[in-house]
TrEMBL record:
One of its GO terms (molecular function) is transposase activity. Residues 13-99 form the H repeat-associated protein N-terminal domain. It comes from the Bacteria. It comes from Phaeodactylibacter luteus. This is ISAs1 family transposase. It holds the Pfam family DDE_Tnp_1. Residues 109-344 form the Transposase IS4-like domain. One of its GO terms (biological process) is DNA transposition.
């Protein structure tokens, strides 16, 4: 059996292990038949129920190599109804288990965690209306992306962006992150998440903004004073090279990112002790020049990390966080038309 065939057989076994919520006597198609058809159609470029149903009719002979489909393939209404009513938590856990089975991420693999709003999963009017008056929130997903493998390692649904703080730990718990470097934006800059990642034998790099104001002010103040800090103090623990630059030109602009790193011990024991495993604080000054207009902009961003690394490494790791936006989210929006999708019933958008 070829590797691809074995992988497909493993997927079929996974689908068959998902509990079917339907009454047996009313079923013309097994849950596995519906899910296998849906997944096959989506990875082939289908983006709505009608297209998935059309794919099934056109590819019935191929589909029957894996399932019986004794009643042919289901209609778009049947596919819609079943996928919409399938519990997303159960589906996530089974599918992530299949996708990551046997997957061993090499030491130092960077995993980016970020949230994405499915804009079409609720109308603007529904989102602006209070829930007590019939309003509805758009579906929000927290996802983990490995750019090195071009693989989404998993996702977890939450109803609001503010709920990412609880969704991120639930997603991380599903993943084997031993030896990985996990990047999360400022929303996930939480002491409990830092502790969880260390417990999972991973390192963290967190964006730092005003939601952790005390720490941010202390970090920014240290970098303002960095020129006056005694060099011997910086190198007490053989600190790696603590400043690095990275430049790029493309899309009509010049960009330079200047990264500076300081040891977290400079924060003082009391503040540092509040953050599990904190080793480094990072400042990145991002400069941009738009060539057509000669418009210049500069922004300073701050990060904290359990890594003890040099500025060049932090520049690379921090920049890699944009991979989840540029590669995963862009593909979902442009190729799979996720934001344009009007799947709003029950759990359709999440699944």
């Amino acid at each position: 059996m070829s590797e691809d065939r074995a992988s497909l057989q493993s997927l079929i076994t996974t689908f068959e292990s998902i509990p079917d919520f339907r009454v047996d006597r009313h079923k013309k198609y097994s849950l596995g038949e519906i899910l296998f058809l849906t997944l096959s159609a989506v990875v082939s470029g289908c983006s709505d129920w009608d297209e998935i149903a059309d794919f099934g009719r056109e590819k019935l002979a191929w589909l029957r190599r894996f399932y019986e489909y004794k009643n042919g393939t289901p209609s778009h209404d049947t596919i819609n109804r079943v996928v919409s009513l399938l519990d997303p938590r159960t589906f996530e856990e089974h599918f992530i288990g299949w996708a990551t089975k046997g997957l061993e991420l090499p030491e130092g693999t960077i995993v980016n965690v970020d949230g994405k709003k499915l804009r079409g999963s609720a109308t603007k009017k529904e989102q602006q209306t209070p829930h007590a008056q019939g309003g509805k929130s758009a579906v929000h997903l927290v996802q983990a992306w490995c750019n090195e493998l071009q693989l989404c390692l998993g996702q977890y649904q939450t109803k609001e962006k503010s709920n990412e703080i609880t969704a991120i730990p639930a997603l991380l718990e599903l993943l084997d992150l031993r030896g990985c470097i996990v990047t999360i934006d400022a929303m996930g800059c939480q002491k409990a998440i830092a502790e969880q990642l260390l417990g999972q034998q991973a390192d963290y790099v967190f964006g730092l903004k005003n939601n952790q104001l005390k720490l941010k002010e202390a970090v920014s103040s240290l970098f303002e004073q960095a020129g006056t800090i005694n060099d011997k103090e910086l190198k007490l623990e053989a600190l790696p090279e603590h400043i690095a630059e990275q430049s790029d030109q493309g899309h009509g602009r010049l960009e330079k990112r200047i990264c500076r790193v300081l040891p977290a011990k400079l924060l003082g024991e009391e503040l540092r002790a509040e953050w599990p495993g904190l080793e480094s604080i990072v400042e990145i000054t991002a400069c941009r020049l738009v060539l057509a207009t000669n418009q210049f902009s500069m922004e300073k961003r701050y990060y904290i990390s359990s890594l003890k690394a040099g500025a060049a490494d932090f520049n690379r790791v921090v920049r890699s966080h944009w991979a989840i936006e540029n590669n995963l989210h862009w593909s979902l929006d442009v190729q799979f038309k996720e934001d344009q999708s009007l799947k709003r019933a029950n759990h359709a958008a999440a699944n």
